[in-house]
Amino acid sequence: MGLLDSLRSVLGVRTDADATREADPEDLFGMSTAYVTMEADLDFVPVGAAALCFSSVDSTDFAAAVDEVEAILGAGEEETGTAFHRHEDDHGYHWVVLEDDDPEDLVTSVHFAADTFVEEGYGSRLLAAVFGFERSRDGARAYWVYSFRRGAYYPFAPTGRHERDNRLEFKLQSVLDGELGVESDESYWYPLWPDGPNGHPWE
Amino acid sequence: MVLTMFLLFVLYIVFVAILSRYMGLFGVVLVMGLFSLGQFFFSDRLALYSMGARRVDADEYPRLHAMVDRLCQQADLPKPDVAVADTKMPNAFAAGRSQKNSTVCVTEGLLRTLDEAELEGVMAHELAHVKNRDVMVMTVASFLSTLAFMVVRWGWLFGGGRNRQSGGGVVVAILVSLVVWIVSFVLIRALSRYREYAADRGAAAITGRPSALASALLKISGRMKDVPDRDLREQSEMNAFFVIPLRSGVVGRLFSTHPPTEKRVDRLRELEGEMERR
Question: What is the value of pTM for the model shown?
Answer without folding.
Answer: 0.76
